[in-house]
Amino acid sequence: MTINLNSVTAFYQFINNHEIAVVHVMRDNCSVCHAVLPQIEGVVSEYPNVAFGIINQSEVEAIAGELTIFTVPVDLIFLNGKEMHRQGRFIDMQQFEKQLSLMYNSLEH
C-alpha cells in the first residue's frame, strides 16, 4: 500500500507508526524520480508489512532540510523510526533490495 505524505508531520508519523518503512522522495518534473518509483514499489510489494510512502519535495519543501536532501530521487529505509539505509540520485535496486531484505529478515514475521 502506497501512502502519500503531505507534510513533515505526516512523514514522522508514518516512519514512527511502521516497523519498517520505505520512503521515496521525489520532485515534479523529475523523470528519474518517476522512472524509479515503480521499480521501488515493485521491490517493496514483495515484503508484507513494509509500508511505502511517497513525499513530493515540490509540495513539501521543508522535507529537504529535515532529511538533508540535496538531490532527488532519494529512497530511504527506516527501521523502528530510524534511518537505516539511503540511496540518492542513482538508485542501485539490487543493493536497495538486499538492505531491505536484511532488515525484514531480522524481524520476526
From TrEMBL:
InterPro entries the UniProt entry points to: Thioredoxin-like_sf, Thioredoxin_domain
Top-rank taxon: Bacteria
CDD domains, alphabetized: TRX_family
Pfam families with a match to the protein in the record: Thioredoxin (PF00085)
Cross-referenced Gene3D superfamilies: Glutaredoxin
All copies of domain Thioredoxin, residue ranges: 8-87
UniProt xrefs under SUPFAM superfamilies: Thioredoxin-like (SSF52833)
Name of the featured protein: Thioredoxin
Organism: Staphylococcus arlettae
Organism phylogeny: Bacteria, Bacillati, Bacillota, Bacilli, Bacillales
